[in-house]
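*** Query protein ***
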Amino acid sequence: MKNLDQRNQIIEYSLKLNSTNLSPLRSGNISLRGMENDIEGYLITPSGKKYETLKPEDIVFMGLNENEKNDLTNKPSSEWRFHRDIYRNKKGAHAIVHAHSPHATAVSSHGKPIPPFHYMIALAGGDDIKCAEYATFGTEALSKNVIKALENRSACLMSNHGQVAFGKNLEDAFELAQEIENICHQYTIALKLGEPKILSFEEMKKVLDKAKNYKKG
């Protein structure tokens, strides 16, 4: 089977979505950039299957120029559009994790960006975490909104939906998704105490410079 290692890796991290409570049951989806038959594309989790039942042959390959999957044997995740468009628009994206994580989903229901109440906001790439405007799941409109919210960012919230993060590999993308969920958890706690103090633009600029070497320290 082609791309067997990548298929198994997707299954491994799909199971982690459940075991870490990042996304329950069938919710969320994962993909990896890849090649098949000299076609540039990505491997993505199928639609509607519990992660615990996934097999390598269930993982769907789609070309970056495909607008839909004609092979109905394995139907790709309904969110394949924004996965495709992230890979098209972000050269540094080699893996994507989309999750309906509890705190990120709760915060996303307000449809607002998360301000820099904590310097770890910088891990998403900017001085706030954007929230993509709401659109029906699986639509081109949602994909456009996600791409807009990811401008100069590697993660964002999705209004009334959840979050999405990308990285140079699945480990990085998954870890970033966990970081976003943790930040959202902290933010909800902070709001219970009132409006949190917001770090200045100047301070966040310093943090963003330091964050480039965060994982090297």
Remarks:
- The helical segments are 4-19, 80-89, 102-108, 140-149, 170-192, 201-211.
- The chain has a mean pLDDT of 93.
- The two ends are 39 Å apart (CA to CA).
